[in-house]
Amino acid sequence: MAGEPVNVNEFQELARQALPKMYYDYYTGGAEDQHTLKENVESFPRIIIRPRILVDVSKIDMSTTILGHKTSAPIMIAPTAKHKLAHHEGEVATARGAAACDVIMGLSYMSTCTVEEVATSCNAVRFFQIYVYKRRDITALMVRRAEKNGFGAIILTADTPRLGRREADIKNKMIAPQLKNFEGLISTEYVSDKGSNIEALAAGTFDASLCWKDIEWLKSITKLPILIKGILTSEDAIKAIEAGVAGIIVSNHGARQLDYAPTTISVLEEVVHAVQGKVPVFFDGGVRRGTDIFKALALGAKAVLIGRAVIYGLAAKGELGVKQVIQMLKDEFELTMALSGCCSVDDITRSHVKTEKERFICRM
C-alpha cells in the first residue's frame, strides 16, 4: 500500500502484510459461513444520518463519562485476546495507546501480558474481561488480581458456553501460546488432533453450566461494577437488569460465536428500549468509521467498543498504530458531529438517524 493509511480500513491491509497467515486469519475470521461477520460491518451503511444545519459547531465536545470515568470520547478498546500474536509488546502497547488517547481499555482474560504488566505500563483506565472457568477459584483469583491492580470494572463475557466453529483456525491448526496470567495455576497449552488448540482450550476450561444465578456469585467476590457482554435480545436485557449488572454490552462476539445471529447494530435499539435507561448500554461490533460511532449513539448506545480495528493498528505499527486508529475514529466522529449539528454527545438523538426499516415503511 502506497503512503500512510488515511482510514481504519486501510490498516487491515497493513496488518495482513505484517502477520503470518495463521494469526491474520485468527484475528479476522468469524464463525462458519461468516455471514454475521460480513453483515456486522455492512449493516451500518443501511442507516442514514439526518443532519441539522445552521448550528454553531465552532466548539465540539466529544467527552463523556463511563461508569464514573471521564473519557475523551465515547470509545473503548474492546477486550480481545492474545495481542502478542500481533506485536511483541502485546497488550502493554495497546494500553499505552489507549492512555495516550484518553480512552478506556478492556483487557482480555486471554491476554498475553499479565494483569500486573498492563496495570504498571501506563495510567489508562482499564476494565477487565473474564470468562468463567470450570475451576471457579481461578476466575475468582483473576478478578481479585484485577481489583488489586486498579481496574475499574469487570466485563463478563456471557455468550461462550462453547466456542463457535471458526473454520480458518481449524484449517490452520491454530496454536496459541501458554498465557502468562495462568502460569502456575492451569495449563493453557491444550493440544487437539481436530485442528485449533484454542477450541480445545475452551472445551477444557470454560464452564458451560454458567447461568443467570451465577451473576450473584460474581457480585459476591468483587466490589467492582459488572458489565455483561453478549446481549442480543430484549429478553436477556431484562434478565440482566434483574440480575443487577451495572451495564450491558450489545455484542455477538465479533461474529465469532453463532453465525446467522443478528448484527449488533440491528438489535441495539431493541435492547435500549428494554433497559429503559436503568443502566448504560454499550455497543460492540463492526465499527470502522466515525459515522458508525455516531449512528450507534443515536440509537441509544453510551459508547462503542473497538476490537479488530485496534488489532490491525497494533499489528501494523505497535503502540503508534493503536493511537492512529483511535485518533482516526475520533477525528471522523468529531467531523460527523459537526456536520450533523451536534456540539456534544448529548446532542446526538434518535432523530439524527433513519434505519433501513423506517426507510422501507416510508416507501410503502
From TrEMBL:
InterPro entries: Aldolase_TIM (IPR013785), Alpha-hydoxy_acid_DH_FMN (IPR012133), FMN-dep_DH (IPR000262), FMN_HAD (IPR037396), FMN_hydac_DH_AS (IPR008259). Its EC number is 1.1.3.15. One of its GO terms (biological process) is hydrogen peroxide biosynthetic process. GO terms for molecular function: (S)-2-hydroxy-acid oxidase activity; FMN binding. It catalyses: 2-hydroxyhexanoate + O2 = 2-oxohexanoate + H2O2; a (2S)-2-hydroxycarboxylate + O2 = a 2-oxocarboxylate + H2O2; 2-hydroxyoctanoate + O2 = 2-oxooctanoate + H2O2. It is an enzyme of class 1 (oxidoreductase). One of its GO terms (cellular component) is peroxisome. Residues 1-358 form the FMN hydroxy acid dehydrogenase domain. Keywords: Flavoprotein, FMN, Oxidoreductase, Peroxisome. The active site is at 253 (proton acceptor). It is found in: Peroxisome. SUPFAM superfamilies: FMN-linked oxidoreductases. Its cofactor is FMN. FMN binds at residues 79-81, 108, 129, 157, 229, 251, 284-288, 307-308. Glyoxylate binds at residues 26, 131, 166, 253, 256. Its main location: other. The keyword Flavoprotein applies. PANTHER family: PEROXISOMAL (S)-2-HYDROXYACID OXIDASE GLO3, S -2-HYDROXY-ACID OXIDASE-RELATED. Belongs to the FMN-dependent alpha-hydroxy acid dehydrogenase family. This is (S)-2-hydroxy-acid oxidase. It comes from Solanum tuberosum (Potato). The lineage of its organism: Eukaryota, Viridiplantae, Streptophyta, Embryophyta, Tracheophyta. The gene is LOC102602115.
